[in-house]
Structure formats: structure tokens, C-alpha cells
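agent> fetching stored inputs for the MGD docking request
agent> found them:
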Amino acid sequence: MSGVGPGERRTATYCRVCEPACGLVAVVREGELVTLEPDRDHPVSGGFACRKGLAGAAIHSDPDRLDHPLHRFDGETEVRSWDDAVGGIATTLTSLLEEYGPESIGLYMGNPASFNSQVGIGTPELFARLGVTRVFNSATQDCSNKFAAATAMFGTSALHPLPDLRRTDALLLLGSNWRVSKGSFLVVPNAYRELTEAAARGARIWFVNPRDTETAGSRTGETVPIRPDTDVYLLAALIHEIDRTVGFDPVAGEQGTHLDGLRAFVADFPPERVAEVCGIPAERIREIARDFAAAPRAAAHMSTGVNMGRQGMLAYWLMTMLVLVTGNLDREGGNIPGREVYPATLKARGDLAREVVDGEFGPMRRGHLPGALLADYVLDAERPLRALVVIAGNPLLTIPGEERLRKALEALELLVVIDLYPNATGEYADWLLPAADMFERADVNVAGLGMQASTFVQWTPAVVPPRHERREEWWILARIAQEMGLPSVLDAEDPETARWSRVDHMLAAGGLTREQVTAFPHGLPVGDAEPGSLFARHIQTADGRVDCRPAAFDAAIARCARIFDELAAEDPAQLKLIARRDAKAQNSWYANVPEMKRGDRDRNPLTLNPADAERLGLAPGDEVVVRSAWGEVQTSVALDPGLRPGVVAMEHGWGLQPGLRLSRERPGVNVNRLMPHGPGSYEPESNMARLTGIPVEVRPLRLPSAPAMV
Ligand SMILES: Nc1nc2c(c(=O)[nH]1)N[C@H]1C(S)=C(S)[C@@H](COP(=O)(O)OP(=O)(O)OC[C@H]3O[C@@H](n4cnc5c(=O)[nH]c(N)nc54)[C@H](O)[C@@H]3O)O[C@H]1N2
Ligand SMILES: Nc1nc2c(c(=O)[nH]1)N[C@H]1C(S)=C(S)[C@@H](COP(=O)(O)OP(=O)(O)OC[C@H]3O[C@@H](n4cnc5c(=O)[nH]c(N)nc54)[C@H](O)[C@@H]3O)O[C@H]1N2
Ligand code: SF4
Ligand SMILES: [Mo]
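agent> prediction call returned; pasting C-alpha cells
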């Protein structure tokens, strides 16, 4: 792009922090990235960017960033050369392989790796070649329930029909707070504005959420305050009520098979029966069912608040069924597939029934292992993990069970952490390797393909060269591969072409070349989500229809009945802890951004409804101990009248990261100390962790000198 002032240039790029991939303009002065602005010329985000994205410049120049490879041994930390680092890692991996085989080596890929098109080139080259199968990633703390459900219903893990926000008349949104998070599995920049526009057109919007969030309100729609971890029963009751009153839309019989199985399942959960467990009056459930079914066009979407419950897979199934039985699947204003560039739905074909296997720690889905078992694979496995490579992740803080994870990380013979920062996990690393950040690498936004409401492809150059000795992940992995004598992109005749081969292949599948994409520096618009394409192009079941009651769900359905009885028998006063995000954070990695840690963001308090606080004799600022069956944390109290009584909330991503100055000053506590982990703690068909709706006990902290509680 053109220069502006002397020594100044402006380069179009895009954000790689969360799913919308908003267009940014990087202002570079005297070769330094000085600031970021929203890109007004972007064909899709059109001048929208949030504070997290714009704070990227602060992350780029953060003095606490990792700038050189670090080696830790005997409690000492030393700066080493890249040759030493990759050589040392290769030597240890080789000897572990020889002595213990590939099962001794594991990989954890964190969330930011999904926004990096180049990670995918070095990773398979190294790990698949070594025969490494113990691969973990952040999806089992995020959304793996959706992959399992989609595989069972549609025969592919990559088909996730998007709510057609611009044309719908009714929208049921469960477990998502778009104004803060900007959404997931639905890629629209400024999703909140889309909601206000839909509401202004007259669309009815329900937010099913134990908390009255920033997204709900008079400009969008009403909150349906549900008890945590009970969405599956609400959805079953809605379908049952529709079946009983207006009946299923005739198109459902054409689109789906096994509708009788679906009917039989939901018949157990009429509104009257689920009302108490869900905490929603039966009359309200009937009303929502009636209005959803009567809307000319209706859509639904659910996100992490439901994914992180115990039954995210079944909930996603039933949400999809609600759309299908009302004739809204693949129809304008309903749920429709995003426009793909790469044929992801075809490539991600699968059969859930064959993918659930007996693992060493119980049933699980083949593929990415449950994060909730990471510590067990190190500490308890017959053939334990002895080395772990972590790329763009911070499992110590983001996976349930901090205490066990500390022991596990400690026990490893080799821990390699490739990151922007010396993060909390990196405290245990033998090798801590400095990664280039998103402004230091060329990239293509391959992550969102198929989940964007308006699909675009964007190529960005590296805005500035990597500072100091930061390197891109593909290069680091390719160097390790070289040192181990494995094939490596760096040995290709033309490494630059070779390292883009995967991206070029993906683009070619959509009839595009990188040159064509590069010609559109603000992004190349490809097209909008398309009604009519789901059955025509995307579904991958053998008969081309949706399986409305997959046999692979048998065990989950039996659990569903058991969990219902358990919830019905529970003390109604039992406090439940839910997940919560803040606009000034991004999981665990904005912990050192000054703008995000101002004012009251000195810790992550336990938020309570004022009535609960009063009942427990707690006032804002009081210190409390929060205890679950899995662990405890100490924090302070804050009030949130938006919380449903009986529900408490805490933000994740906090907890001491000793390498980060602001984290040392304002560490907060890791809520994952309270979360279930180990065998039996995750959804076995999807490997999804349980991170919301956790029964907790809250009591005031008594200092040792104070009289004991009676
Ligand atoms: N209790 C609870 N736990 C949760 C959640 C919750 O709601 N409640 N949310 C879950 C969710 S949705 C997710 S996605 C996971 C996330 O879990 P993780 O992916 O494990 O963690 P993040 O905090 O996203 O950390 C990412 C790390 O990547 C680094 N990083 C950023 N960009 C780059 C890059 O370009 N290259 C490299 N090499 N490193 C980079 C950051 O510095 C940071 O250390 O956490 C989950 N954990
Ligand atoms: N500012 C910010 N933005 C982010 C992130 C961040 O950490 N901070 N993380 C990014 C990542 S990795 C992801 S995956 C996305 C996630 O994006 P979303 O899935 O939209 O996540 P949240 O905004 O946390 O919304 C989850 C909602 O679920 C509600 N909830 C909790 N338990 C339950 C329940 O049992 N039932 C129902 N119905 N609701 C429940 C919570 O009150 C909360 O409002 O956000 C991304 N964007
Ligand atoms: S919404 Fe996400 S992608 Fe867009 S600017 Fe914010 S952090 Fe970046
Ligand atoms: Mo996530």
C-alpha cells in the first residue's frame, strides 16, 4: 500500500486472534509496527475490529515477549542459539523414540494454531513421520462436541449450518455472548450489530443463558435464564412440544431418517417434566416452541456455554433437530451452510459409531485425545508420555486440573513450548522457543472457510520481519525434522514454494491461486452462505439424508436419562459455577497487555447474584474460598445481578504466569483448578471437557487468627 508520511507505510492485513479475521491496517513507521487500525476497505469486516485485535501492536512490542531460544536445566535459564535448540530437542526425541517408541511423545496444539495456515505444514511432517498419535488440542476444551455430533448427523465433522442472521424472523441462541466473544462457529464480524439489525427488522431473539449477558437487552432480545448444564432437556422439550402441537414440517421426513427415534427420545422430556430441572416454567417453554415453529423463518445457534456442559454433543444434535423439524434446515432465514473454498465437508467425512474406541482410560473418540486426560497420559499410562511439544497453547491454565498438570509437566523428560510468551506452561519447559507473531508472518485465512456468513479469502504479507530471533513454527519444526534426519520442507528444492504447498492445494481445490488472492490485499470476497447447498453438496451420509437419531448416541442417551434423574434429585440451593469471558481478555494470552489489566481487572473475582451473596453473608470485595469436588481457589466477591440466582461465574485464563510482569502484579486465579479432570470427566463420544455447571461451595475465607466457623 502507499506510503503516508515520511518513513511511514500502511499495510493491509487481518487479525488472527479470533474467528472473524477482521481486516486491519498496520501502520509501520521507520520499520516498526506502531499501531493498528480497522480496515475500512475490507469487503466483509468493513471497518470493524475490536479492542483485542487492535491491541495486537502491544503484544508485538511487549518487552516480556520471548525473543531468543531459552534452555532450562538445573533451575538455570540460558539463551541458546537456534542450532543448539533444534539439535538438543532432536537428540532427546531420537533417544526417547529408540527407547520407548512414538507413544512416549505427545503434541498439544493451542487455539491460536488454528489461525496460522503455516502450522499445518511442519506439524504433520514431523509428528506423523515419527508415528506420534498422542495429539491433544484446545478443541476438547472448546467445541469437540460439535465435531462428534456433526459426524453422526451429517457424516462429516465439518458441516455446521450457520444461522442466516440477515433473513431470519426468529433466532434461538444458546450459551453465547457475541458482544464479548465475537462468536464461534459463525464467522461474522460485529455479530452484535447483526443481532440489533435483525431485531430492528422484527426478528424475535431468545438468549438461553444462565446470565443476562451484555448481548441481550431491548436492542436485541430477551434472556431465557436457564439452569446451567440443562440445555439438552430444554431442546428436547421444545421438539416434543412442536411434535405434540403443530407436528413436524413435512420436509423433515424428506431431509431426515430415524425421525421416529428422535420422537421417542424427546417424548421422555415434555415441558412439564423438564421445567424444574431447567428452571424455566413449562408455559414459557411452550411459548418459545410455538413462536419458533410459527416463525416464517427461524434459526438456532449454540456455543461454548453449552459445549462445555456434560452433554454438548446431544445438545448440538437437538438444536439441529429443532431447526430440521421446523423446516428451517438449508432454507433461507434458517440454518444454511457457509460457502466453502476448500471442500472441507467432503474431506472431513467420518462415521462416529466406528470412531468411539476403548482407550486406556475408558471410552473416547479416536483422533485428538481428551485434554482432561493429558496429565493421566504422563502420570498413569502404562506407556507414559515422556516428551510433550506445546505449540501456541497454555494447557497448564486452560485444561482442567492444574495440580495434576503441574505434576505431569514436572515429570516429563522433555517439554518444548513454542510461544510468543514465557507463559505459565513454559515455566516447566526444557526448551522455550520464541514464535513469530501474526504481524511477522505471511498467512492466508484458511481457518474460517466454511463457517463464514460471507466468505472471503485473504492473504497477508508479513507486515514486519520477525524481531530478534523469533521464528515461524513451520521453520522450527522443519529444523527439528532436519536434525532428526527426516524429510523437511527446508530440504525441498524451493522451500518457499514447498512451505505454501498445503495452502496452495487448499486454494486450488476452490479454483484459486495464491497469486489471485494476493491481488486483493483487503481480502477476496467469495460468496455468502447458501441455502440449498446442504443436501446438494455438503452432506456426507451414505443416503444423503440427515441421521435424526444416530445409533452412535445410544450410550449418550442412556447417560442423558441418568443425568436428568441426578439433576432432579439435586438440592435446589446447590450453587453452580459457569464459564464467563471478558472483552478485555483472550483466554490466557492477554495477561500482559496493560490496556487489558487496568482498573478493577486486577483479578478474576467470583461473581454472584446479590440475593445469593446476601444469603451467604458476603459483600463485594470479601475474600472467599470456592470449592468443588476437584479442587479449590481463593478469590474475592463481586456482584452481578444478571446472574440467575444459584449461579456463580468466574473468568478463565487467569492464574500466575511468572514470566509476565503484569501477571505477577495481577495474577488472579486459575478457575480450572475447580474443573473435573481425569477418567470419566469428559464426554466420551467427543472428548469434550466439562467446564460449566460445576457444583461448588462458597464460604468466606477465615484468616488463621479468626475464630473457627461453627
Ligand atoms: N475453565 C475454562 N477453561 C477454558 C475455557 C473456558 O471457558 N473455561 N475456554 C477454553 C477455550 S474456548 C479455549 S480455545 C482454550 C484455549 O486454550 P489454549 O489454546 O491452550 O490457550 P490460550 O490461552 O488460547 O493460549 C494460547 C497461547 O498461544 C500463544 N500464542 C498466541 N499467538 C501465537 C502464535 O502465533 N504462535 C505461537 N506459537 N503462540 C502463540 C499465547 O501467547 C498463549 O500462550 O481454553 C479453554 N479453557
Ligand atoms: N473477549 C474475548 N473474546 C473471545 C475469547 C475470550 O477469551 N475473550 N475467546 C475466544 C474463543 S477461544 C472462543 S471459543 C469464543 C467463544 O465464544 P462464545 O461461545 O460466544 O463464548 P462466551 O461469550 O463465553 O459465551 C458463553 C456463554 O455461555 C453462557 N453459559 C455458561 N454456562 C451455560 C449453560 O450451561 N447453558 C447455557 N445456555 N449457557 C451457558 C455464559 O453465561 C456465556 O454468556 O470466544 C472467542 N472470543
Ligand atoms: S473480533 Fe476477533 S478477529 Fe476481529 S479484531 Fe477482534 S480479536 Fe481480531
Ligand atoms: Mo475457544
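agent> quick read of the result: The pocket of iron/sulfur cluster (ligand 3) is lined by residues 15, 17-18, 20-22, 49-50, 52-53, 182, 189 (CB under 6 Å).
agent> awaiting further instructions
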